[in-house]
């Protein structure tokens, strides 16, 4: 294995604590959470007590003011554990950072401490039924009337949608201004006119609550505008590299975990009087995957370094997201094949990984959008 220079002994101690926590507090309950369609509130509160939620939040708001490496460790350990229902990645890496970066002092004091403790779960509502990855095509509107914005529209496929007490909603404040007419709003879940649809039934990520959200004449206080009006699209574009890095980190970790499970399985599984691991096809398949996963980890670590230096650009993050999520799906598919019929059984980790990994090529911007971003850079 190639030594990872990104992490030191302090990071390893943190990693050990996250891994132990997941093994004792999450993994034994994950099957029940899959049946329930969501994880418990208790696991969020326990994670908050241990400092696993929003570690990048400044100390004055209850966080520990770390850098993104600690977020990466949480993501890697979730990917390794197979506890795909935990919505911490969305909370830690995507929605809460918007409040940290663009929120005013009142907003930070009001929301961040509860985000860190796990008492307040967040979501970000971008996708709409007819738009998919096309953020400029959203139809949700926010019209200023006196001291409130009147919010109307709907969103879908919203991670943490059922449990979220605070949702960052992407809406148009000027329907004639294109991307310059998009703004972000902090919308509390108990506001009149804000309703949540049913918990959506999905191919994978069965323990992760995912919802439709509806807004009918919701009066959002003017003070809940996040950042400046009309700059929402810019904020989203600035933060997408971190989101895509976050997805990639989890993808590589999950691929590594499934590789490990499969290597062990093929050493034990017997066929034609010998172990599956003894076949050249098995050895060559696993060798190819191991080489690709190692390469992906090196690329992912380098992109994390670039993020820490403030140099991770959209094109590089798109390349990483494209490569790692395609690879995650490839690893899950090939490893399932090496399990034979047992790989198709839900009780086996490789089956869950196969189902859970598929969405990685869709959210955070579909991989087709990643190719478009990369190709435009090549052709300019």
Describe the structure.
The protein is of the alpha+beta class and 380 residues long. It folds into three domains: 9-120, Butyryl-Coa Dehydrogenase, subunit A, domain 1, CATH 1.10.540; 123-230, Butyryl-CoA Dehydrogenase, subunit A, domain 2 (Beta Barrel); 233-379, Butyryl-CoA Dehydrogenase, subunit A, domain 3. It is built from eleven helices and ten strands. It has helices at 9-26, 30-36, 41-50, 68-81, 88-102, 105-117, 232-268, 280-308, 314-339, 349-357, 367-379, and strands at residues 122-125, 141-145, 148-159, 166-172, 182-188, 194-199, 210-221, 225-226, 270-271, 274-275.
Q: Total strand count, please? A: 10
Number of domains: 3
The coarse overall form would be globular
- What pattern of helices and strands is seen along the backbone? HHHHHHEEEEEEEEHEEHHHH
Biggest β-sheet description: 4 strands, mixed
Q: End-to-end span in angstroms?
A: 38 Å
What is the CATH class of the largest domain?
Mainly Alpha
Architecture of the largest domain in CATH? Up-down Bundle
Query: DSSP helix count?
Result: 11
Give the averaged pLDDT, no decimals: 96
Tell me the structural class. Answer: alpha+beta
CA radius of gyration: 21 Å
Strand order across the largest sheet? 1-4-5-8
CATH homologous group name of the largest domain = Butyryl-CoA Dehydrogenase, subunit A, domain 3
Strand content: 15-25%
Low-confidence spans: pLDDT under 50, at least 5 residues?
none
- Residue share in helices? 40-55%
CATH topology of the largest domain: Butyryl-CoA Dehydrogenase, subunit A, domain 3
């Amino acid at each position: 294995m190639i030594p990872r220079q990104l992490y030191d002994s302090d990071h390893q101690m943190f990693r050990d604590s996250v891994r132990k926590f997941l093994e004792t507090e999450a993994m034994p309950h994950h099957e029940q959470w899959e049946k329930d369609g969501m994880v418990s509130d208790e696991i969020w509160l326990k994670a908050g007590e241990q400092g696993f939620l929003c570690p990048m939040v400044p100390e004055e708001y209850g966080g520990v003011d770390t850098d993104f490496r600690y977020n990466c460790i949480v993501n890697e350990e979730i990917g390794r554990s197979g506890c795909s229902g935990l919505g911490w990645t969305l909370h830690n890496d995507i929605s809460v950072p918007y409040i940290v970066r663009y929120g005013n002092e009142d907003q930070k004091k009001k929301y961040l401490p509860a985000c860190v403790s796990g008492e307040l779960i967040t979501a970000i509502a971008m996708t709409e039924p007819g738009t998919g990855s096309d953020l400029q095509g959203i139809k949700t509107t926010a019209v200023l009337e006196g001291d409130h914005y009147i919010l109307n529209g709907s969103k879908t496929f919203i991670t943490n949608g059922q449990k979220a007490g605070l949702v960052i909603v992407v809406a148009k404040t000027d329907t004639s201004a294109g991307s310059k007419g998009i703004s972000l709003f902090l919308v509390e879940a108990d506001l009149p006119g804000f309703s949540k649809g049913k918990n959506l039934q999905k191919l994978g990520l069965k323990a992760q609550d995912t919802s439709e959200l509806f807004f009918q004449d919701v009066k959002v206080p003017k003070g809940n505008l996040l950042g400046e009006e009309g700059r929402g699209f810019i904020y989203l574009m600035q933060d997408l590299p971190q989101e895509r890095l976050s997805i990639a980190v989890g993808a590589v970790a999950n691929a590594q975990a499934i590789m490990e499970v499969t290597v062990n399985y093929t050493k034990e599984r017997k066929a034609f009087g010998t172990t599956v691991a003894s076949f050249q096809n098995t050895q060559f398949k696993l060798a190819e995957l191991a080489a690709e996963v190692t390469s992906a980890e090196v690329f992912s670590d380098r992109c994390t370094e670039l993020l820490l230096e403030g140099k991770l650009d959209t094109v590089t993050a798109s390349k990483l997201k494209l490569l790692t999520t395609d690879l995650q799906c490839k690893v899950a598919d090939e490893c399932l094949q090496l399990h034979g019929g047992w790989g198709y059984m839900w009780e086996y980790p490789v089956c869950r990984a196969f189902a859970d990994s598929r969405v990685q090529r869709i959210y955070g911007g579909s991989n087709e959008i990643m190719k478009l971003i990369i190709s435009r850079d090549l052709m300019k």
